[in-house]
Design a protein that fits this description.
Layout (H helix, E strand, L loop, with lengths): L6 H8 L10 H25 L4 H22 L1
Helix pairs in contact: 1-2, 2-3
Length: about 80
Amino acid sequence: MTTGIEAGFVAEAESKSLSAGSWTPFLRDLAEEIDELRKEMEQTYEQGSGFQSEHLLAISQKLDLKINEFLHHRLS
């Protein structure tokens, strides 16, 4: 069972090969961090920052790194 925070990323990742129920605590923490960053990015945009704001771009870059880290650890 997933928490509300993990729901968005978990739903997409579960459809791949490894169910969230078998994730290590490390992968669960990464999934939670990814969802938090995604929500922060959405909120920043909705506050009128626009796609080119430095803060939004920094969040996006960090989100990309965390997603890559998640995929790397999930597949290894």
